[in-house]
Design brief:
The structure holds three protein chains of three kinds.
Chain A (H helix, E strand, L loop, with lengths): L1 E3 L4 H10 L4 E3 L5 H6 L10 E4 L9 E4 L4 E5 L4 H5 L2 H5 L1 H8 L4 H4 L4 H7 L7 H6 L3 E6 L2 E6 H4 E3 L2 E2 L6 E8 L5 E6 L10 E8 L4 E7 L6 E2 L1 H10 L6 E2 L1 H14 L10 H19 L2 E2 L8
Parallel strand pairs in A: 1-3, 2-3, 15-16
Antiparallel strand pairs in A: 4-5, 5-10, 6-7, 6-10, 8-9, 11-12, 12-13, 13-14
Helix pairs in contact in A: 10-11, 11-12
Chain B lengths: L31 H5 L15 E7 L5 E7 L1 H4 L4 E5 L9 E2 L6 E2 L5 E2 L5 E7 L2 H10 L1 E6 L6 H5 L12 E9 L8 E9 L11 E6 L6 E5 L4 H12 L6 E5 L15 H11 L3 E4 L2 H7 L6 E9 L5 E11 L7 H10 L9 E9 L14 H19 L3 H8 L19 H9 L37 E13 L8 E9 L2 E6 L8 H13 L3 E4 L17 H28 L7 E3 L2 E3 L6 E3 H4 L5 E8 L17 E14 L4 E12 L6 H20 L5 E2 L2 E2 L17 E7 L21 H18 L10 E2 L3 H5 L2
Parallel strand pairs in B: 1-14, 10-31, 12-13, 16-17, 20-21, 27-30
Antiparallel strand pairs in B: 1-7, 2-6, 2-8, 3-7, 4-5, 9-17, 10-15, 11-12, 11-14, 15-16, 18-26, 19-20, 19-25, 22-23, 23-24, 26-27, 28-29
Helix pairs in contact in B: 5-6, 8-9, 9-10, 9-16, 12-13, 15-16
Chain C lengths: L1 E8 L2 E9 L4 H8 L18 E4 L2 E4 L12 E3 L12 H8 L9 H14 L5 H7 L11 H15 L4
Parallel strand pairs in C: 1-5
Antiparallel strand pairs in C: 1-2, 3-4, 3-5
Helix pairs in contact in C: 2-5
C-alpha cells in the first residue's frame, strides 16, 4: 500500500503480482489528470507502482538484422521526437511532436499511451499502421501480442491484472511513412482525427491506421488493398482520382461519433482528406492523365 | 501548516530612474520583478496558519426542484469542520450586481448546472471532496429552458420569480420606412466565450475575534461592490467587512460578479477561524459569468454608392439563469448596432433573456463584441453588393465627431474612425509566402501552415485571405450610473504616497498611477499603499474605465497636493503660488529665478488630499431607445491576414494589423500589451473558444477542451497608436483595454470568407459563408 | 493513508509527512513546502503555469505524483535566483512588457530558461513551439517572444 518506486523491473513485477489492482504510474500525464479531477477517486488504500524510470523500460534497441526497433515502454515522446529514433521511425516522430506540450512530451511514455488506449492517443495510429508488437510481463511471464489485438476498445486493452507493458517492437520499413493529425488549435491539442500511412516498398504494401474516428484505432484494409493495386509503384506516383478514392475508402473504415470536439461527419471528412494527402506525400509524383488531387 | 513565504501583493514600490517614469514613458511594472520571480502573492497564495479549506456543492441539473438536502453522512467524515446551506445565510438570501436575483445557496430550485447548494470546510481539499460527495440531495428534475426564443414568446413557464425576460429594449430613430437601393441581411451567431483568466478564483476569509466582522483577501474587480453585496448577505454593516485585494491573475470581466466571496466569509464566521477557498478550473467554468451567446439579425439599407440609409436589427442575448449585468450588456449591444458608421434611420429590438444555461455577464467588450461581429459582417455584404472593397465601404460611412448616433446622442468624443482605417491599411502586409517564416530561408515550415505540427496541409492546400473589422466602443459606465473613483495622495520629504481601491488585474494601473504622481508632483519615489476598502470606491476595473476614472482621481489628488505644495513654497518665498510649476523634480517660478527641489520644499511637511473623480452624468434610454446614455467612445480598426485549409477547415492567422484611437498613450508599452492581449482573446473567439452546453450541461469545462490561443496560434501584430488627446478625458487618454478584442474577431472571420471566396471561385460555383463564431473546422469544410 | 517521503527541491532535502497518496508535486510544493511560485491553473498539463524542472526536464508539476519524485532533483522558480536578483530571463520578461497579471510568468520563466539552455539561438518559430505548452491570457505572447529573443542576443554577445 502506498507509492512504490521499485528500482528494477523484477521488483516492479513482484509488486504488481502482489497487488494486481495496483495503479501503474509511468509519465503520469493521464493518471494524474484522473486523480486531480477526482474522476479516479483514491481512498488512500491504493498501491501505486511507479515504473517510468525503470532502467529496463528506459532503453531502446535497433536490430538492423531483424529490421526492428524495440522501444522500452518508458521511452518518452520527447526521446522519439528527435535524434536517432526519429530517423528510424519518422512517423512516430511526427506523432510525438503533436503529443500535448513540450512539458507533456518530456514525461509521457509510449507505454503509457498504450496503457491508456484512448482513441485519440497520438502515437497509437503509428503503432497500428506498423503492426507493432506489444510486450507484457506479468507473474506468469512474458508475452507479446499484436497491437491490434492489444487495443480492445475505448480505454480498454488486453493487459491483464498484474501485467506491465514493458516494450513495443516496431518494424523499420523501407518506404515512406507519415502521420497527420487534425486539431482545432496549432499546438497542444487533442486529435479530432488522425492518420498514419506507412509504405513497405519491398512488399509493395500500403498501410493506413486512423485515430479518433472509432472506439479504438482502426486500420482500413479496403483502402490499403486499393492503394497497393492502384499506385504506380515504379513511378512513385499516384493520381488525384486514386488518392481521392483511397481517402473515401479510408473514411469508410471510420466509425466516428458526434461529441463536443467534432461531429461524426467532420471526423469522417477529415480522415478522408488526411488519407488522400498522406498517399500523395508517399507518392509525390503526379501520375499521367490524372486530375489535381487532394 | 506552512508559513507564508510570499511577498505581499501590494509591496510594489520601486524607485524610478531619476527623472524617469513620467507620463508618456514606459517604465517597467512596479510589481514586475516580484511576479517574474514567483514571489507575488495571488489570492491563491495566502496560506494562513490554522485555515480550513472550503469547497462548494453544485447542482448537477440545469433545472430542478430541490426536494431534500441530507448532510448527515458528510458531517460524519473525519476532518469535516462545518457544512452550510441556504438556511445558514443570515442576511439577504440573494445577490447580484444589478438585480439581487441569484441565491447565495439554492434552497428550492436550481437553475443551472453548477449552481451552489452547500459549502463545506475541512482540513484538506480531499476531505472536502469526500464531504461534498457524501451530501445527499434529492431533486425533482424540471424541463429546462434551453431555447431563448421560448423565453421571448412566453412558451416556457417562468424559471424565476422575476420572469424569463431580463430586458427588452427597442431603439427607433428617424424614418423607419426609409429604404435603400441595396439591401443586405443575415443572421449572425456568437458562441459563449469564457474569460479564462489563469488565476483561478481563490480567497481567504479571516473572521474578527468577536465574530462580528471579517477580513476577506480576494481577487476581484470591484472591492466596494463586493463589500456591499457581502454585507447584505451576512447582515453585517459594510464597515465590518474589510476587503483586501489578493493578487489578481487576470479578470476580463469574470471577477465583476460575486463568486466565492460570501461562501468563504460565511464559513469563516461560522467556524471562527480562517477559511481558504480555491476553485479548480472545472469549477471556475461553473463559478463565474461568461460572455453572452447571441443571435443577431441585421438588415442594412444603403444607396448604390454604399452609404448606409437604415439599419434594422434584432438581438437575442442568452443571459443564462441569473441577471448579472445582462441588462447593461444588452444596452451596449443594441446601442452599437451601427458600429463606427453614420446611420440616420434605425429600428432595433433587443432581448436579454433568462435560460437554464450558465449565467452570463461581463466580459471584455461587454455586448459590443457581439454587435460588432454582426455589423462588420454586414459591411462586407454591403461592399460586395455595391462593388466596393471593404476599406472603401467603411471609409464612406465612417463616423466623425459631431455625428448623431441612433440613440440621438451626439458623438462628442474625438472620433478618428477614418484615420484608424487608413492607418491600418498603411501598415505593411506580410511579405512572406504561405508557410514561410518572415526573414527565413525561403523554406516551408509546417508549423506555419494551418494544422501546424499536425502536418495536415501542404502549401497547395492553403489559401490566403484578408479581412477587415472596425469598431466603436463606449468607455465607462452608462445609463445614469454615478460613476466615480477615489484616490488619496500624500507628499512628504520628497516621497509621494498614493492610495486607491482600484483593482490591479494585470492591466498596469499601478504603473500608470505612479507615472501620474511622478509627473504631477516632480518626485521619483512613489509609494503605493495596499489596495483595500480603507478608502472610497474606485468603481470596477472594467469598461475600459480605470485609466480615465482612477487615473483622473489620482491626477486630481496629486494636483490638489501640488496646490498645497505651491501655497507652501509661495508663502515661504513670497511668490504667488499661481506662478509656480513643476519642472523635472523641482518647483520652479518660470517668471523669476526660484528653483527648489521638491524634496527640499517638502522636507518636514506633510500634504494629504483625497479626491473623487466623477465623469459627466448620463441618461437612461427612453422607450424608443433615445437618450445620452454613454459617456465617451473609442475606436479601432483591424486587418487580419489568414491562411485557410478549405478542405479541412483549419486556419492559421498570419498577421493582424491595427490602428487604435487611444487619445494619449500614457505608457506605450502597456498600451501595446493591452492591444496584443486583446487581439489574442478576439482571435480565440474567432476560431476556437466556445463553452459548449448540450441540454444545459457544459461539455468542455477544462483547458483540454476549452481551447485558448497558444504561442503558435497568435500571429505577428503590426500596430500604430492614434494619439488625439480627448478633451473630455482627464489626461487626454482613452481606455484601451476593450477595443483590441472587438473588431479583430470579425476581421478574422472576414479573412476566412475571403480565402474561401478565392478557393470556391475555382470550385464550380460553390459558395461558403461564415456567419458564426467561433468558426469551427466543420463550418468551413462541410459548408 | 498518510505518505512519508523526502523531496530534493532547490538543493535542499525536505521531509514530506502526512501526505495524501494522490497529492501532486504542485500541491506539495505549494501547500507543504511553502513554495508558492509554481501556480495551478488547469490541473491537466494544459497551461504550463506549474512548470518546474525534474531531473533537468521541464514538466508540469500538477501531473507529477509527489511521492514518485523521491530522490530526483527538483528546481522551482524559487531556486532560480534570489529575490531581488532576477535572472536575465526574468529581467527581460519585465523590461519587454511580458508581465501583466503575472500568473503564467513563473512557469514561462522556467520554460524559457529550459528553451535557451537547449537552444541558445532559437528562431521565432522555435520559440513559439517550445513555449506552446505555456498559456498566457494577458499578453498575446508578442512581448514574451521579444524577451526571449533579447536574452538570446544578450547571451550571444561577446562579453565586454
Amino acid at each position: 500500500m502506498g507509492v512504490l518506486v521499485p528500482d528494477t523491473l523484477d521488483d516492479a513485477i513482484v509488486a504488481l503480482g502482489a497487488q494486481p489492482d495496483a495503479l501503474v504510474l509511468a509519465g503520469g500525464t493521464d493518471l494524474m489528470v484522473e486523480i486531480n479531477e477526482a474522476h479516479r477517486r483514491l481512498t488512500g488504500t491504493e498501491t501505486v507502482v511507479v515504473v517510468g524510470r525503470l532502467p529496463e523500460l528506459r532503453t531502446w534497441v535497433h536490430d538492423p538484422g531483424a529490421a526492428t526497433v524495440r522501444l522500452g515502454a518508458g521511452i518518452t515522446y520527447a526521446e522519439v521526437e528527435t535524434g536517432p529514433l526519429a530517423a528510424l521511425l519518422p512517423a512516430l516522430a511526427q506523432a510525438a511532436r503533436t503529443v500535448g506540450s513540450p512539458q507533456i512530451r518530456n514525461v509521457a511514455t509510449i507505454g503509457g499511451n498504450l496503457a491508456t488506449c484512448s482513441p485519440a492517443g497520438d502515437g497509437l495510429p503509428v503503432l497500428a499502421a506498423l503492426d507493432a508488437e506489444v510486450e507484457l510481463v506479468g507473474p506468469d511471464g512474458r508475452r507479446t501480442l499484436p497491437v491490434g489485438d492489444f487495443m480492445t476498445g475505448v480505454k480498454r486493452t488486453a493487459r491483464r491484472p498484474g501485467e506491465l507493458i514493458t516494450a513495443v517492437t516496431l518494424p523499420v520499413l523501407d518506404g515512406w511513412q507519415g502521420y497527420a493529425k487534425v486539431g482545432v488549435r496549432n499546438a497542444m491539442v487533442i486529435a479530432i482525427a488522425g492518420a498514419c500511412l506507412a509504405v513497405d516498398g519491398p512488399t509493395r504494401s500500403v498501410r493506413i491506421a486512423l485515430g479518433s474516428v472509432a472506439p479504438t484505432i482502426v486500420r482500413a484494409p479496403a483502402a490499403e488493398a486499393f492503394a497497393a493495386a492502384e499506385v504506380d509503384w515504379d513511378g512513385a506516383a499516384v493520381s488525384g482520382d486514386v488518392s481521392r478514392r483511397f481517402g473515401e475508402l479510408a473514411g469508410q473504415a471510420a466509425r466516428p461519433i458526434d461529441d463536443h470536439r467534432a461531429s461524426a461527419a467532420y471526423r469522417r471528412r477529415a480522415v478522408e482528406v488526411l488519407a488522400a494527402r498522406l498517399l500523395h506525400r508517399a507518392f509525390p509524383a503526379e501520375a499521367r492523365g490524372s486530375t489535381v488531387g487532394g | 501548516m506552512t508559513p507564508s513565504t510570499a511577498t505581499s501583493s501590494t509591496d510594489t514600490t520601486v524607485r524610478a530612474r531619476p527623472g524617469g517614469g513620467r507620463i508618456g514613458d514606459s517604465p517597467v511594472r512596479p510589481d514586475g520583478i516580484v511576479k517574474a520571480q514567483g514571489g507575488f502573492a495571488f489570492s491563491s497564495d495566502l496560506p494562513i496558519a490554522g485555515a480550513a479549506w472550503g469547497a462548494t456543492l453544485r447542482s448537477p441539473h440545469p433545472y430542478a426542484r430541490i426536494v431534500s438536502i441530507d448532510t448527515s453522512a458528510a458531517w460524519a467524515i473525519a476532518g469535516v469542520a462545518t457544512i452550510i446551506t441556504a438556511a445558514d445565510v443570515p442576511g439577504r438570501a440573494t445577490y447580484g450586481l444589478i438585480a439581487a436575483d441569484q441565491p447565495v445557496f439554492a434552497s428550492d430550485v436550481v437553475r443551472y448546472v453548477g449552481e451552489p447548494i452547500a459549502a463545506v470546510a475541512a482540513d484538506h481539499p480531499e476531505t472536502c471532496r469526500r464531504a461534498l460527495a457524501a451530501i445527499d440531495v434529492t431533486y425533482e428534475v424540471l424541463d429546462p429552458l434551453i431555447d431563448p426564443e421560448t423565453a421571448i414568446d412566453g412558451s416556457h413557464p417562468p424559471i424565476h420569480p422575476d420572469g424569463n425576460v431580463l430586458r427588452a429594449q427597442r431603439i427607433v430613430r428617424g424614418d423607419v420606412d426609409a429604404t435603400g437601393d441595396v439591401v443586405v441581411e443575415a443572421t449572425y451567431e456568437i458562441g459563449m466565450q469564457d474569460q479564462a483568466f489563469l488565476g483561478l478564483e481563490a480567497a481567504v476569509a479571516v473572521p474578527d475575534d468577536d465574530g462580528r466582522g471579517v477580513e476577506l483577501h480576494v481577487a476581484t474587480q470591484w472591492l466596494h461592490e463586493d463589500r456591499k453585496q457581502i454585507a447584505a448577505c451576512l447582515a453585517l454593516p459594510e464597515e465590518s467587512i474589510r476587503i483586501v485585494l489578493g493578487g489578481v491573475g487576470g479578470a476580463f470581466g469574470a471577477r465583476e460578479d460575486i463568486s466565492l466571496q460570501v461562501h468563504t466569509c460565511l464559513l469563516a464566521l461560522r467556524l471562527g477561524r480562517p477559511v481558504r477557498m480555491a476553485y479548480s478550473r472545472a469549477e471556475s467554468f461553473l463559478g463565474h459569468v461568461h460572455r453572452h451567446p447571441a443571435t443577431i439579425w441585421m438588415r442594412h439599407h444603403a444607396t448604390s454608392e454604399g452609404v448606409i440609409v437604415k439599419i434594422e436589427a434584432r438581438f437575442v442575448l442568452d443571459g443564462g439563469a441569473y441577471a448579472s449585468t445582462s441588462s447593461a450588456v444588452l444596452l451596449n449591444a443594441i446601442t452599437h448596432t451601427q458600429g463606427p458608421y453614420r446611420c440616420a434611420n434605425a429600428i432595433v429590438d433587443g432581448w436579454a433573456v433568462r435560460s437554464n444555461h450558465l449565467p452570463c455577464g461581463a466580459m471584455r467588450g461587454f455586448g459590443v463584441v457581439q454587435a460588432c461581429f454582426a455589423h462588420e459582417g454586414q459591411m462586407d455584404r454591403l461592399a460586395e453588393a455595391c462593388g466596393l472593397d471593404p476599406v472603401e465601404i467603411r471609409l464612406r460611412n465612417a463616423m466623425s465627431t459631431g455625428d448623431v448616433l441612433i440613440t440621438g446622442q451626439v458623438m462628442e468624443s474625438v472620433a478618428p474612425v477614418a484615420r484608424c482605417i487608413t492607418e491600418t491599411a498603411a501598415l505593411p502586409m506580410p511579405t512572406t509566402p504561405i508557410g514561410e517564416a518572415p526573414g527565413g530561408p525561403g523554406v516551408i515550415d509546417p508549423l506555419l501552415l494551418p494544422g501546424g505540427a499536425g502536418l495536415t496541409a501542404d502549401v497547395g492546400h492553403v489559401v490566403r485571405g484578408v479581412g477587415w473589422g472596425v469598431a466603436m466602443k463606449n468607455l465607462m459606465y452608462s445609463e445614469g450610473f454615478d460613476d466615480y473613483s477615489t484616490a488619496r495622495c500624500q507628499l512628504a520629504d520628497g516621497i509621494a504616497t498614493i492610495k486607491f481601491a482600484t483593482s490591479e488585474v494585470g492591466q498596469g494601473f499601478v504603473t500608470i498611477a505612479q507615472q501620474i504622481a511622478r509627473t504631477v508632483l516632480g518626485v521619483d519615489v512613489v509609494v503605493q499603499e495596499p489596495i483595500d476598502t480603507q478608502i472610497g470606491s474606485a468603481g470596477s476595473t472594467s469598461a475600459s474605465r480605470q485609466t480615465w476614472m482612477s487615473g483622473g482621481a489620482v491626477d486630481a489628488a496629486c494636483r490638489a497636493v501640488r496646490e498645497r505644495l505651491f501655497e507652501h513654497v509661495g508663502a515661504r518665498h513670497q511668490i504667488d503660488p499661481l506662478r509656480l510649476v513643476i519642472d523635472g523634480t523641482d518647483v520652479v517660478d518660470p517668471l523669476g529665478d526660484l528653483r527648489v527641489p521638491v524634496a527640499e520644499a517638502t522636507a518636514g511637511q506633510h500634504f494629504d488630499e483625497t479626491l473623487e473623480y466623477h465623469h459627466r452624468p448620463t441618461e437612461e434610454l427612453d422607450e424608443n431607445g433615445q437618450g445620452n446614455c454613454h459617456t465617451a467612445f473609442a475606436f479601432v480598426a483591424h486587418r487580419a491576414v489568414v491562411d485557410v485549409d478549405p478542405e479541412l477547415g483549419l486556419v492559421k492567422v498570419v498577421q493582424v494589423a491595427t490602428a487604435q484611437d487611444v487619445g494619449r498613450a500614457l505608457n506605450p508599452l502597456s498600451v501595446r500589451g493591452q492591444i496584443e492581449g486583446g487581439i489574442s482573446q478576439g482571435l480565440g473567439l474567432a476560431v476556437m473558444e466556445e463553452i459548449i452546453q448540450i441540454d444545459g450541461r457544459i461539455r468542455n469545462a477544462s483547458f483540454t477542451d476549452y481551447l485558448l490561443p497558444t504561442f503558435l496560434d497568435m500571429p505577428d501584430v503590426e500596430l500604430t497608436l492614434i494619439e488625439e488627446p480627448d478633451p473630455q478625458a482627464p489626461l487626454g487618454a482613452k481606455g484601451v483595454g476593450e477595443p483590441p478584442c472587438i473588431s479583430v474577431t470579425p476581421a478574422i472571420a472576414a479573412a476566412i470568407r475571403d480565402a474561401l471566396r478565392t478557393f470556391d471561385a475555382g470550385d464550380g460555383g460553390r459558395r461558403r459563408d461564415i456567419t458564426r463564431v467561433p468558426v469551427r473546422p466543420s463550418d468551413i469544410a462541410l459548408a | 493513508m498518510s505518505e512519508h517521503y523526502r523531496l530534493h527541491v532547490n538543493g535542499s532535502s525536505h521531509d514530506v509527512a502526512d501526505g495524501w497518496i494522490g497529492e501532486s508535486l504542485l500541491y506539495v510544493l505549494r501547500e507543504r513546502l511553502g513554495l508558492l511560485g509554481a501556480k495551478g491553473a488547469c490541473e491537466q498539463g494544459e497551461c504550463g503555469s506549474c512548470s518546474v524542472l525534474v531531473d533537468g526536464d521541464l514538466v508540469c508539476s500538477c501531473l507529477v505524483l509527489a511521492a514518485s519524485a523521491v530522490d530526483r532533483p527538483i528546481l522551482t522558480i524559487e531556486g532560480l535566483a534570489e529575490p531581488g536578483a532576477p535572472t536575465d530571463v526574468q529581467r527581460a520578461f519585465v523590461d519587454a512588457g511580458g508581465v501583466q497579471c503575472g500568473f503564467c510568468t513563473p512557469g514561462l520563466v522556467m520554460a524559457a530558461h529550459a528553451l535557451l539552455d537547449r537552444n541558445p539561438e532559437p528562431t521565432v518559430t522555435e520559440i513559439r513551439e517550445q513555449l506552446s505548452g505555456n498559456i498566457c491570457r494577458c499578453t498575446g505572447y508578442g512581448r514574451l517572444i521579444a524577451a526571449v529573443q533579447e536574452v538570446a542576443v544578450a547571451r550571444g554577445a561577446p562579453r565586454a
